[in-house]
Prior knowledge:
Helix content: over 70%
Number of helices: 11
Number of strands: 0
Largest sheet: none
Shape: elongated
Mean pLDDT: 92
Strand content: under 5%
Distance between the termini: 27 Å
Order of helices and strands: HHHHHHHHHHH
Oligomer: single chain
Amino acid sequence: MNTQTNATRKGLSVKDLVTTGIFTALLFVFTMVGGVFFATNPVLTFYMPAGSALLCGPIYLLMVAKVQKRWSLTIMGILIGIVWFVTGMHWAFALGYMIMGIVADFVAGAGQYKSKKINTLSYILFSLGGTGSYLVFFADPEGWAQTMLGNGTEQGYIDTMQATANIGILIAMFVAVLVTAAISALVGSRMLKKQFEKAGITA
């Protein structure tokens, strides 16, 4: 039988949940700050996930270091997804963060939340959650448009997106997310080196 460390086996305490809530709020704010410039422009909106990923690496990694338990990242992804949904974003945008929050949690858990490299991979995967809405846009542009019109998006904005979209932009969007998330995680690792050492996080 495989063994688990106490960190992953022991349930989340009230302190862990409070910490998760605080860092989720911080991450959401920085997600908006990083992505708002792109989101308001129908030509640049495809790069919103990359803009959001650029600022959040240090926050994400610090939360992992402080909690180091299963389900914290899952809760973060679910909460962020719910907030995006109630604020009028496409349902796939919310679902993307929920799914990738779960995936990111299990990936970080594979390294017992103590490996910088695996935690970095976890953050990159989490950041891909922001591409959910755009994947549906490319797969079903008409259905996506109807949903967003119902959420209050202007027809002109949608028309410009549809006129701009192509396979090159789809590829560029994913590459941009991967690169910016990796850079953000690298910067976060260097910023938080002392905190990681205290938490027992290794390279």
